[in-house]
Specification:
The structure holds two protein chains of two kinds.
Chain A (H helix, E strand, L loop, with lengths): L3 E12 L2 E12 L2 E6 L6 H8 L7 E6 L2 E2 L4 H6 L1 E5 L10 H11 L4 H4 L7 H13 L15 H13 L5 E5 L7 H16 L3 E6 L2 H7 L2 E6 L2 E7 H5 L5 H12 L1
Parallel strand pairs in A: 3-8, 3-9, 6-7, 7-8
Antiparallel strand pairs in A: 1-2, 1-4, 4-5, 9-10
Chain B lengths: L2 H14 L2 H30 L2 E6 L6 H7 L2 E5 L3 H7 L3 E6 L2 E5 L5 H28 L20 H39 L3 H5 L5 H33 L16 H28 L3 H8 L2 H14 L15 H12 L5 H26 L2 H6 L1
Parallel strand pairs in B: 1-2, 1-3
Antiparallel strand pairs in B: 3-4
Classes of the chains: A alpha/beta, B mainly alpha.
Chain lengths: 252, 378
Amino acid sequence: MTEVAVRVDRLEKTLGSNRVLRGISFEAHSGEIFGLLGPNGAGKTTTLRVICTLLAPDTGSVEVLGFDTRSAPQEVRRRVGVVTAEFGVYPRLTARENIAYFAQLSGVGRAREERTPGLDGELARKVDAVIERLDIGEFAKQRAETLSSGQKQKVAIARAIVHDPPVLMFDEPTSNLDVLASREIRQFMVESKGRGKCVIFSTHVLHDAERLCDRVTIIHQGRVVASGSTAEVRGGFQDLEDSFLSLVEAAK
Amino acid sequence: MSALAIVFNKEIREILRDRRTLIAIALAVLATPTVLFVIAQVSTRTATQTYTVGYSGEIPAGLDVLFNATGLRLERVEDPAAAAKTEVDIGIVFTSAGLDEYYDPTRQSAQIADIRVQTILAQYDAAKIAATLQQKGLDPSILNPLPVSVHPLSSPVKAAGNSFLSFFLPYILITMSLTGGLSAALDTSAGERERRTLESLLLTPAPRGQVLIGKLLAVSLLSLVAAVAAIGSMLIALSQISFGLSGGADARVSLTPLAAAVMVWLAVLLAASFSSLTIALGTLARNFRQGQAYATPLYFITIFPASIVLFIPDFNPSLAYYLIPILNAVLVLRDAITHNTVSWGPLVVTSASLLLTGGLCFYAALRLFTREALLVRS
């Protein structure tokens, strides 16, 4: 059994008057793609936001590689990279500058940089490596305001992974992308899994989840309605979508 | 490099690439000398302009010479009252008993012509009376039993210049401290949320306090540069422009080193306070436009305190008034410019008040910046 990278235990969260999460529990492991599935409004994004410390849990707990999100939020942030459908980038910075900015804030190359200031040394190498890995070189020196949606999404991924986090979370990453760009994102997730990363993939596109995920948890109205390997959750149904619809209907 | 320095560098880089902000500041810096130049031109023209007096009847001997010497051109007309409405600046009917004057007070040229006519007539009357008294063997000085010799301790022209500067400089300083960094402040707070970069920024392990201070320093620096540049351009313009006043070099307005030092110190405090305030408002806003709506009332803050100096020049309040932010800066600057002195009590109270205001605004911005609602609302 691989290492537990993310442990969510009886998580509850209320936003305003809306009780969004009602006791969510699951574990995601290193070296797997874990699917967090559910219809819109089920609580997927809120769950991810709690995991990455943007929101604090009301009750229950979340641990990332042994660090509690409440007591050690900065340790958690060092170990997590998040890609969402909203690939906000700084328009007046170049693609490379956008990536380098987040790398610096994540502490990449800080120890080396004291000896070699600027973008030399470790920081430059890490930024260059991620630019090469995601094939960004062609537009690395272009200002972000001139990039296409697919190119911006690549920059968003690059800034999320430039500090080489062991946990990667993708929240509906392909919803604003065309077919080719979506395929690249899927390939990237598979590649990250191969590198031993824990990849949490939140989506309502069940076709993608069925193809990519090793294990899935389906949540509906803030509760877990099914959890297990993709095959287990699909059960006797023809595909995951039929299983999902049946589970959601039963949960009503 | 600390998170503070990383954020500061990035914000400055973005500001320097934002043409709109740079053009707005450049225009503000150029606008002040331009306005002053226009004012000086109008003022000089007004002082040297010749006005037309439409008259009928016989002009008393010698009076026409005085009219011509004072920039009043005499022109005979049929009906001076009718002509004074549009054709000429002022109308006069000379009669054997004296004269009737007609002018339209709504016309500025008529007002100026009237003042000149009254001055000439007073001089003419005085000269006539003196001549008559001398003819009768009397000393004309009996009409002036208590002669007065005025000895101004400083140049009246310089005082007029300082009075002008004591209103205009605080106004420019406060306006530019606010508007110079406003766009950048909203861009770095509300814009961060609107562009959807806020979440990514908060996901980094960088301490949020440092992130906010980095933003604050960048915006404050921009505000300070804008304010100092605008005032610098204004002072350069004032050193080159004469406002049609007599007095030669004295007629040019300048700032003493003491007043300049006080101004720079207050500019630093105002820039920091306004930056904290506008970043707090921007953090509260959902987007740039909403941030602008929140910041609009701040423009009034820049107008009212400076107006007090304009409308109540002798306003000498107690020390408690120096606790009121913005107004206190205006009062300290006024004192430094008009009296060339700095009272330490008001300056200390003013500095403490502005630092406290800036600190409170920063605390509010930090609280807003770290609230979950910030992300949930976005």
